[in-house]
């Protein structure tokens, strides 16, 4: 028989060879792993048998850093592989026969291993600005007193990304503290999803940092649990509205001040009798600080006597002031 790629000249006979080798592909265990027992399925007779050999390494390509082939394993049900932890493994099977009319048949090989547990990693934390949400009553029973008005709450949406080299299921703990504080405040434990809604009204206004810790306790025994954490960039919690003060009206002109203790004033509007709202800009022409002074020319208010001012900070907190002109 003649073959190509590469060319070979071979002769086929109508009998079995006395021995033959099978060498497996290099198998990637993905992570440094501890190898346990080796099993195989084979049909043999007293005249023929199968023995297996193993070699290991930590590089994809077999080179001088790989181990030599092990001593032969001959028991398909009780072969414990005593080798150092490794990333790559290869198996060689030797089939032999003392009878040219008899041959072994190898149908499967199994190797049990456990990956070294590597710790998870929190890669990023994202904190979205406050968003308003209205919490409505579930249902209204007309036979009972009317429920309280719907509560308008403000929250921060916190999301993060994390990864685990072993693809373990991760458990998260979120804590936070003021940037000038020493102690962390536990916010939420035993989270399995990388998301949290943080109600700002539960915390004093100020500058904070957040800590997200991930552990793999859901996939490993206590002694093997690994964890890591990541700190967020500083962010602001502001749930207090601006204060409108020092209002005065002289003829068609009004003056007033707006101040917020935590964040920048973002918008100020005025209205007669709360119907149509008009913007008013600070004296310096731009809303860019926590305290601003305003002047507005009302021109001719006519018969309209009730004057409203609405001020909002950059986190959506607002206050309303009204006066009789």
Oligomer: single chain
Specify the biggest β-sheet. Answer: 6 strands, antiparallel
Sheet-strand content, in percent, reads over 45%
Extract low-pLDDT stretches.
131-138, 145-152
Number of helices: 0
The count of DSSP E runs of length 2 or more, i.e. the number of strands, is: 23
How would the global form be characterised? rod-shaped
Q: Which second-level CATH architecture of the largest domain applies?
A: Sandwich
Count up the domains: 3
- Can you tell me the CATH topology of the largest domain? Immunoglobulin-like
CATH superfamily of the largest domain: Immunoglobulins
Give the ordered list of helices and strands.
EEEEEEEEEEEEEEEEEEEEEEE
**Radius of gyration over alpha carbons?**
37 Å
SSE class: mainly beta
Provide the helix percentage.
Answer: under 10%
Average residue-wise pLDDT: 88
Quick one: CATH class of the largest domain? Mainly Beta
What does this structure look like?
- With 325 residues, the chain is mainly β.
- It has three domains: 14-115, Jelly Rolls, CATH 2.60.120; 121-135 and 150-237, Immunoglobulin-like; 243-324, Immunoglobulin-like (Sandwich), CATH 2.60.40.650.
- It is built from no helices and 23 strands.
- Strands 3, 4, 5, 6, 7 and 8 form a six-stranded antiparallel beta sheet that branches. Strands 11, 12, 14, 15 and 16 form a five-stranded antiparallel beta sheet that branches. Strands 20-19-22-23 form a four-stranded antiparallel beta sheet, with no helix packed on it.
- The radius of gyration is 37 Å and the shape is rod-shaped.
- The N and C termini lie far apart (111 Å).
- The model is unreliable at 131-138 and 145-152 (pLDDT under 50).
């Amino acid at each position: 028989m003649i073959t190509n790629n590469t060319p070979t000249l071979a002769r086929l006979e109508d009998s079995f060879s006395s021995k033959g080798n099978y060498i497996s592909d290099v198998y990637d265990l993905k992570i440094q792993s501890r190898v346990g027992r080796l099993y195989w399925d084979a049909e043999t007779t007293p005249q023929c048998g199968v023995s297996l050999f193993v070699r290991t390494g930590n590089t994809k390509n077999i080179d001088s850093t790989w181990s030599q082939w092990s001593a032969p394993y001959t028991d398909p049900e009780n072969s414990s592989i005593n080798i150092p932890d490794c990333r790559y493994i290869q198996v060689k099977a030797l089939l032999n026969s003392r009878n040219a009319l008899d041959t072994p048949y190898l149908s499967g090989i199994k190797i049990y291993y456990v990956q070294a547990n590597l710790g998870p990693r929190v890669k990023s934390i994202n904190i979205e600005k406050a968003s308003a949400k209205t919490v409505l009553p579930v249902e209204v029973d007309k036979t009972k007193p009317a429920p309280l008005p719907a509560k308008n709450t403000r929250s921060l949406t916190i999301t993060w990304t994390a990864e685990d080299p072993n693809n373990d299921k991760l458990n998260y703990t979120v804590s936070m503290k003021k940037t000038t504080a020493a102690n962390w405040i536990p916010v939420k434990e035993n989270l399995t999803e990388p998301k949290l809604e943080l109600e700002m009204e539960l915390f004093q206004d100020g500058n904070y940092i957040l800590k997200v810790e991930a552990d793999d306790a859901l996939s490993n025994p206590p002694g093997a649990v690994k964890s890591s954490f990541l700190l967020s960039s500083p962010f602001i919690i502001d749930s207090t509205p601006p204060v409108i003060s020092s209002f005065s009206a002289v003829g068609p002109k009004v003056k007033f001040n707006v101040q917020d203790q935590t964040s920048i004033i973002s918008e100020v509007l005025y209205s007669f009798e709360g119907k149509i709202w008009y913007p008013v800009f600070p004296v310096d022409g731009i809303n860019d600080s926590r305290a601003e002074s305003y002047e507005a020319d009302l021109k001719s208010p006519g018969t309209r006597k009730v004057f409203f001012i609405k001020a909002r900070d950059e986190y959506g907190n607002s206050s309303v002031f009204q006066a009789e002109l």
